[in-house]
Amino acid sequence: MELRAFYQEHYRAILGTTSVLTLIVMWELLLTFVIPLNPFFFTKPSLIAVAFKEQVIHGALWSDLVVSSRAFLWGFSLAILFGIPTGAFMGWRRRAEYTLDPFLTALYASPLVALAPLMIVVFGVGLLAKAMLVFLLSVFPFIFNTFAGVRSTDRLLINVVRSFGGKERDLYLKVIFPSTLPYIAAGARIALGRGLVGIIVGEFYAASEGIGFAISRFGDTYKLPEMFAGILVLMIGAVVMTEGMRKLEAFLAPWKTSQQSR
Amino acid sequence: MNRLANFYNEREHYLLGGGFILLLVLAWETLPRLVTLPRGLTLFFTTPTRVVEAFYQLLVENKIQHHFYVSSIEFLFGLSLAIAVGLPLGLIAGRSKIIDAMVDPYVTVFNATPRLIFLPLFILWFGIGMWSKVMIVFIGAVFPLLINTQEGVKNVDQVLVNVVRSFGANEWQVMRTVVLPNSVPYIVAGLRLAIGRAVLGVVVGEFFGASEGLGYMIASAATNYKVDVVFVGVAIFMGLSLALTLWVKKLESHLSRWRPEETKTF
């Protein structure tokens, strides 16, 4: 009886873990006993685990990760610094919205990653091109979500602050900023995914270091376990960051269970 | 004067938006004529007229049609495959709590990870031809479709389901009469996202290990400093994305025209 109650409470976690474990075990068993393993084509979990240990725990992949994170952080910070003020400006000034919105929407809707080869030719294969690519891809969620956040600020709250003699500064600090923050956090989650795309494409295309480069190099040299280990590292990083953003969102706006975003 | 002001006030929205874009294009066009650019920069610089000329040239010489064709085929195959897999899986996962719980870890992980990371693997598995691109388009587009379909199915009005059940409907009939029509807006929203991912997949997939397609055209033009050709490719992708987005929006309002006005946008 207690077991059933436990299952009822945690059935999602139990079933999820079971399905992942089943897949891993099946994968391992199938390639060990049923299908002969062709190491140039496929690999199995035990080999990936060995490669993971070697690459991550013994640190062969760390320098690549550092290189990628540096470019990512530069681009992402630049996107925050540029995107939030632009979005806020569009939210405050109606004419600024009219002027900028069509242009920026068109850019947001189009696959700007197509500019990657040009950016690499112009800015070189180093940090600058990758950072610019990350910036270009991740700035739009910040712009549009800040814009939406400022626009959706409750007029009533603004009027209340005004009626109680609040100054312009109080308005920004006490109403607009807090009510926009959850939108920005939601934007940051989208920007994160797009920024990762930028890093990966930049490093696939032309680089001599970085996690994307490492993965494509392992692919080129048929080191499949190492390649899967690299993908695994990237997956873990992406999930940790995305879930972190989600937590941040929930923390900043506990009254909103799910966020509408563009 | 007053009429002019009226004219402006009525159309301020469009005038400002269109005017700004026009201004940018004009500035881009006239910049090299007003100031002499440093020599290093002229190599990477082009003007809108040169881009249009390059586009015309490529069309006349029949150089772009084949690339366009290849990219479209990859896009269509990948997206159709994503719809064929994502939609049913989303419907099932939305109706069954057990399958939802079992699929959830994979969906979460793959959705958070940029799926482009599988490109080297797919090139290894499917070769440098069309299929590795189709697969990268597929894996990019399938998750938004799956997640949105599932969300739509979950948000179905339980009262309606119960009504249909009381009248003796089986699971298939419930699906067809209540669940599917109700999830249409979600599915279309998912389709919109999926199209974006699919275009991304086509572009990036063709950057590496390809010998045809628009992405390949862009990449090889960039390495040969043919900046105008790069912008031709980028402009085509921009135009296609905008057209497809508008089309999906149209589809959305068409499919949900029977809905009361306030529930149309979710």
Write structural notes for this entry.
- The complex is a heterodimer of chains A (262) and B (266).
- By secondary structure, chain A is mainly alpha-helical.
- Chain A has helices at residues 2-34, 45-57, 62-92, 94-109, 116-123, 127-151, 155-163, 168-205, 211-220, 224-252.
- The radius of gyration of chain A is 23 Å and the shape is flat.
- With 266 residues, chain B is mostly helical.
- Chain B has two domains: 2-45, no CATH class; 51-263, MetI-like (MetI-like fold), CATH 1.10.3720.
- Helices cover 81% and strands 0% of the residues of chain B.
- Chain B has helices at residues 2-10, 12-34, 39-42, 48-60, 64-95, 97-112, 119-126, 130-154, 158-166, 171-207, 214-223, 227-255.
- Chain B is flat.
- Chain B starts with a helix and ends in an 11-residue tail after the last helix.
Keywords summarizing the entry:
A: 262 residues; mainly alpha; MetI-like fold; 2 domains; 10 helices; flat; disordered C terminus; B: 266 residues; 12 helices; 81% helix
